[in-house]
Design goal:
The complex is a heterotrimer of chains A (about 250), B (about 575) and C (about 260). Chain A has about 250 residues and is an alpha+beta fold. Chain A starts with 8 loop residues before the first helix and ends with a helix. Classes of the chains: A alpha+beta (about 250), B mainly alpha (about 575), C mainly alpha (about 260). The complex binds heme-A (HEA) (2 copies), dinuclear copper ion and copper (II) ion (CU).
Chain lengths: ~250, ~575, ~260
């Protein structure tokens, strides 16, 4: 977590961690709006409850059904509608369309109890994988199929390294059970379901180290199924990537 | 009224009291049977929650006779706590327990329809609980997949300890529970539809009955689907099918080669089609009771009574359409996410209408702040505290951040667990004179019990919102030993953790006060007058509706419930026949 | 659902009950003509709506049993709907194989042709059941019993119910034959995706028919033993409606298996 970055007071009040992604700002402001409204309504309603119960004069039967029930109900329904439509427009921007074609492709594989990240390498194409070849001990944690030449230059790492300011298209898959891929500081969460691939895209902004958690119970090691997201400035990222490709070649030589 | 039954009780030809209670088909005995089931479950569930909390705060603590709590032990605790509490406490006690005890009396029926079937339902549920508790004893221990038991984790013992015999035991227990619950709901629906006494028209039926009715209407489809899902999962586990197992799934380096291409998401759909109605089943009876109790002690008719009937039914209907809001980030199509979000926000509207009615009914009514009333007001407060976060997580973009964090745990403990338990306390204090032959619970102890419970409830569960907003995931066996960024992210909330744990222990201990009150009152003489709360509903009719004797004329209802004069000084109970001159206009 | 026979708001003086007396005259136990008559004429003290709950005559018990059955069958229907929706999901789901080809490995199970025969048997059994049910409500026969001329209703119903029972058992035997035929072709439960469903659906349905058979046996016993006509009527009526529902369900499931795979 970049400690240098001061967390805005509103986030700090609600215990929210720093937001390091581009879409997170809109999400945060909507979340904060919701939270403040909820807090206000919680306080107001409990106040009404208290005052109403403790007031010492008995009012006549509240006969104004319209003002006490239907109008407030209408107001609440309008509020819900407003919040809901604002939320769904954010949801639509994030989910209805896929990543831009030039987004960085990374594949995320979850298995009990680790995450692995695969970069497609120089050919920009992921090699084929097979679950039955998965074996971390044999150095093939995601099950790369040696028969597929595209896989030869794929880079598999236990750490997710991304450039700041560039959109990333993550392809999520799971080998065994459902895992939950979550980066709280990127306001990102999506389950990885075995037998399917899920896509999620986002743009990290703030360089630093962030926690990648598993948020779907997946067995006894669920709590320790973590990885690190390292967001680097674009130039550093390119350097890193070249380095990885080089070391990959070095591995391949002997 | 008890003279003839007294005579019967001492007659020597009858079998022993215990034998009679065990073979009884009397709805009162069945109701107490259900309450016994949930009392056993609540004791286990509470102890398990303590162990969870203690482990989260002091991970090195060793459980006597067991040793350190391993990660799989923690998950087993979570699973068993959730299952016991949600299935065997909050579904059984309000719906089947108080349903059997009070419902017939409230509609003027002498008994439930199909008494033998009813007894079968209760014993099936009891068998479900016994089977569930066996999960602690089987090799491998209790299941670790959570109360939602998502496959493929739950389909093979390869996936972890507890997923062998433990998961089978769980499935068996849930199947029994589903069958028992369906039976009980069918009996209840038939009773409500067919056995209302003369004059008890649908418009005179109290809101509690509407709550039981709607919840039963939800039970029938929801539990049937649960049963089918459990059956399919069982086939996947033992018969080589692959309804929920994807092709070429490799668990623990072993290829699970079942035939077919299954989908884990299918289980999620089936489970939540049950799971969401389930949580409303847990709360609908409490909502009805809250309305009636607040009206009774405010000496006013329930505000917008007919709207409350409509909202009860609307919540039931919409409750069948919102299951996808548990799956926003589970791999659902994003368009479906929007649709389920709309349905979930729609269901918040009738819920808000209920809140408004509760507030308006008690608003400046100078109510009698008896213990049941306090618990009903507490229910309102907790329902709001939990419901407002429901609106937040119903928005997919926000749920993306909050899903499976402690924010959710806070949401459902406030709105379901604690509001539901407040409903149970309200019911117990309110109906105790009827259940315990005219004995009353101590009001003084009751008020202490209320205030302490309310205080510790908020102490325990409000901070969960903050730790969830901070990113703490649920079902984490420990918050130590994580990698550096995760540690940094979660370390910020260690203080909250101690706060929550302290609150949880105090909350549990407070319940000893309730237990003490119960025991003390049961040994005290009966002092309650016939209708101690000046209630208007039929269960308080002097005929002794709870143990009706055939000697008395059958009751009839002449009014709507909650009939009070404007200043609240006098009231007309439903059973009181009007003077010919004051025939009520509907 | 007009169960409430007291007009709302109208005060009706009630006869004070006497200890030990469950109501004058009719107790709904068949001592009155158990015909479809809801309330007696005026002035003869025969107003059934004035009687205690549950003692207003056979119709009340009958409709209670029917309502209960209705809700229970609603649950059952949902159970099968869940199974069938999984069927459709499984049928259409596919996966990629090692060569990135989309594979749908759904192989329809060949339905043994004896199922046609079984279906016919089940249909005939439903007809028999319906005849039995109707004969329980034939007014002339009811009056015969009321006058003490034997129990023509139950005698006739027993014959037709026995026929139903025999045909039901035949159906189950036929299903068994179908399972063994499939097993002989090595089509077992776990052979492939569609065979799961074939067995799941037919076995779940057969389990329901077993319940139906148990109900038939109970109804037959009651026909022979019970002295209360109303009890017999309720038993036969509920059993037969259950039987019909299972027949209808079978047709739906059979069409699904035969044409829906
Ligand atoms: C009794 C149980 C109960 C009830 C009633 C509710 C009620 C609601 N729930 Fe909750 N929910 C659960 C039990 C319950 N829930 C459980 C157990 C889970 C977790 C399951 C699991 O994963 O293990 C869950 C999870 C859950 C999720 C999934 C979260 C996730 O996993 O990511 C969602 C998402 O939409 C949700 C939404 C809602 C909504 C919109 C309501 C609405 O019905 C809420 C309506 C209430 C209100 C809207 C409050 C009204 C009050 C006001 C508006 C204030 C008025 C103010 C003044 C007058 C001043 N719930
Ligand atoms: C009814 C439901 C219910 C109730 C009452 C409770 C009560 C409590 N629960 Fe829990 N809980 C769940 C339902 C419930 N819970 C569910 C469904 C889960 C999710 C499981 C999963 O993830 O799979 C969960 C998970 C859960 C977690 C999350 C674990 C994790 O994800 O890591 C925690 C952690 O603190 C917790 C704590 C507690 C505590 C401290 C209490 C305390 O409040 C306990 C104190 C007890 C009481 C106050 C009750 C006393 C009541 C009576 C005495 C009534 C008796 C009256 C009659 C029978 C008439 N619970
Ligand atoms: Cu992987 Cu939890
Ligand atoms: Cu829900």
């Amino acid at each position: 977590m970049p400690s240098t970055q001061a967390i805005p007071p509103a986030l700090r009040f609600w215990h929210l961690p720093v937001d390091g992604s581009w879409h997170g700002h809109a999400l945060d402001s909507h979340l904060l709006l919701n939270l403040w409204i909820a807090l206000a309504l919680f306080a107001l309603s409990n106040l009404l409850l208290f005052v109403g119960v403790l007031s010492s004069r008995r009012a006549h039967r509240p006969i104004h059904k319209l003002t006490l029930e239907y109008l407030p109900l209408l107001a609440f329904a309008a509020t819900f509608l407003l919040l809901g439509s604002r939320a769904s427009s954010l949801w639509a921007t994030q989910r209805y369309t896929g990543a831009a074609p030039d987004a960085l492709q990374v594949e995320v594989t979850g298995l009990q109890f680790a995450w692995y990240f695969r970069y497609p390498g120089a050919d920009a194409t992921f090699g084929h994988t097979r679950n039955d070849l998965v074996s971390a001990a044999e150095g093939n944690p995601v099950g790369l199929d040696p028969a597929d030449p595209h896989g030869a230059d794929d880079i598999v790492r236990p750490q997710l390294v991304l450039p700041a300011g560039r959109e990333v298209d993550l392809t999520l898959r799971a080998v065994d059970v459902i895992h939950g891929f979550a980066i709280p500081e990127m306001r990102l969460k999506q389950n990885a379901v075995p037998g399917q691939t899920q896509h999620i895209h986002f743009t990290p902004e703030l360089p630093g180290d962030y926690a990648i958690l598993c948020t779907q119970v997946c067995g006894l090691g669920h709590y320790r199924m973590q990885a690190v997201l390292r967001v680097l400035p674009a130039a550093d990222f390119n350097k890193w990537l070249i380095e990885q490709e080089r070391s990959k070649d070095a591995e391949a030589l002997p | 009224m008890s003279a003839p039954s007294q005579r019967l009780r001492t007659s020597p030809a009858r079998p022993h009291r215990i034998v009679r209670a065990l073979t009884s088909t009397n709805h009162r005995n069945i109701g107490f049977g259900y309450l016994t089931i949930s009392t056993i479950a609540v004791i286990f569930g509470t102890i398990l929650s303590w162990l969870m909390r203690i482990h989260l705060s002091w991970p090195d603590w060793k459980l006597p006779l067991h040793g350190p709590i391993l990660p799989e032990d923690y998950l087993a605790l979570v699973t068993m706590h959730g299952t016991l509490m949600l299935f065997f406490v909050l579904t059984v006690a309000p719906q089947s327990g108080f349903g059997n005890l009070i419902l017939p009396a409230q509609i003027g029926a002498r008994r439930m329809a199909f008494p033998r079937l009813n007894a079968l339902g209760m014993w099936t549920t009891a068998a479900g609980l016994i089977v569930l508790l066996c999960a602690f004893l089987v090799p491998g221990g209790s299941p670790i997949a959570g109360w939602t038991s998502y496959p493929p984790l739950s389909v093979t013992s390869l996936a972890g300890p507890g997923e062998g015999a433990g998961q089978d035991v769980w499935l068996t227990s849930i199947a029994l529970f589903a069958i028992g619950g369906t039976i009980s709901a069918v009996v209840m629906l038939t009773t409500i539809v067919k056995l209302r006494c003369a004059g008890m028209t649908w418009r005179r039926v109290p809101l509690t009955v509407w709550g039981w009715f709607t919840a039963s209407l939800l039970v029938v489809p929801a539990f049937s689907v649960l049963l089918a899902a459990v059956l399919l999962l069982f086939c996947d586990r033992h018969l080589g099918s692959a309804f929920f197992i994807p092709h070429a799934d490799v668990i623990n380096s072993t290829l699970v080669s079942h035939h077919g291409t299954g989908s884990p998401l299918l289980w999620l759909h089936l489970f939540w089609f049950f799971g969401h109605p389930e949580v409303y089943i847990a709360i609908l009876p409490g909502m009805g009771l809250t309305s009636m109790v607040i009206a009774n002690f405010s000496r006013r008719r329930v505000f917008a009574y007919r709207l409350m009937i409509a909202t009860t039914l609307a919540i039931g209907l919409l409750g069948l359409l919102v299951w996808g809001h548990h799956m926003f980030v589970a791999g659902l199509n994003p368009f479906a996410g929007t649709a389920f979000a709309a349905a979930s926000l729609a269901i918040a509207v009738p819920a808000t209408a209920k809140v408004l009615s509760w507030l308006a009914t008690s608003w400046r009514a100078r109510p009698w702040l008896s213990t049941p009333m306090l618990f009903a007001l507490g229910f309102v407060s907790l329902f709001i505290a939990g419901g407002l976060s429901g609106i937040i997580v119903a928005q997919p973009i926000l749920d993306e951040y909050l899903h499976n964090t402690f924010f959710i745990v806070g949401h459902f403990h406030l709105i379901m667990a604690m509001a539901g338990v407040f409903g149970l306390f309200c019911a117990t204090y309110y109906w105790f004179p009827l259940l315990a032959h005219g004995r009353m619970l101590s009001e003084r102890l009751g008020k202490w019990h209320f205030w302490l419970t309310l205080l510790f409830t908020y102490t325990t569960f409000l901070p969960m919102y903050f730790s969830g907003l901070g990113g703490e995931p649920r079902r984490y066996a420990q918050l130590t030993g994580l990698n550096a960024p995760a540690q940094a992210l979660l370390a910020a909330h260690t203080v909250l953790q101690f706060h929550i744990t302290g609150g949880a222990i105090a909350l549990g201990l407070t319940q000893l006060l309730f237990l003490f009150n119960l025991v003390r009152s049961l040994r005290a003489p009966s002092i309650a007058p016939d209708n101690p709360w000046s209630a208007t509903t039929m269960e308080w009719a002097p005929q002794g509706m709870l143990e009706p004797s055939p000697d008395l004329p059958s009751p009839a209802a002449y009014h709507r419930p909650c009939h009070y004069t404007d200043d609240g000084s006098s009231f007309t109970p439903q059973w009181e026949s009007p003077q010919p001159s004051t025939v009520e206009q509907e | 659902m007009p169960t409430i026979l007291t007009p709302p708001g109208i005060y009706q003086p009630r006869r004070p009950g006497r200890p030990g007396d469950l109501g004058e005259g009719d107790s709904g136990s068949g001592r009155r003509p158990p015909t479809d008559k809801r309330t007696g004429g005026n002035g003869d003290g025969d107003n059934w709506s004035d009687r205690p709950q549950g003692r207003r005559g056979p119709r009340e018990r009958l409709s209670r049993a029917r309502v209960g059955l209705f809700f229970a069958l609603g649950g059952d229907l949902m159970f099968f709907i869940a199974l069938v929706s999984v069927f459709f999901v499984a049928k259409t789901s596919s996966h990629f194989d090692a060569y990135s080809r989309l594979i749908n490995d759904w192989l329809p199970t060949a339905i043994p042709s004896i199922l046609w025969l079984n279906t016919a048997v089940l249909l005939v059994s439903s007809v028999c059941a319906e005849i039995a049910r109707r004969s329980m409500f034939r007014e002339t026969d009811l009056m015969d019993e009321w006058f003490g001329f034997g129990r023509p209703t139950s005698r006739r119903a027993a014959i037709w119910l026995s026929a139903t029972l025999a045909l039901g058992a035949l159906f189950l035997a036929g299903q068994w034959v179908a399972w063994t035929q499939l097993a002989a072709q090595h089509v077992l439960f776990n052979s492939n995706a569609s065979s799961h469903f074939f067995y799941l659906i037919t076995v779940a349905h057969a389990a329901h028919l077993f319940l139906g058979i148990a109900a038939l046996v109970t109804a037959l016993t009651l026909l022979a033993r019970s002295r209360q006509l109303a009890t017999r009527q309720v038993a036969v009526d509920a059993t037969v409606w259950y039987w019909h529902a299972m027949g209808l369900l079978w047709i739906f499931l059979f069409v699904l298996l035969e044409y829906g795979q």
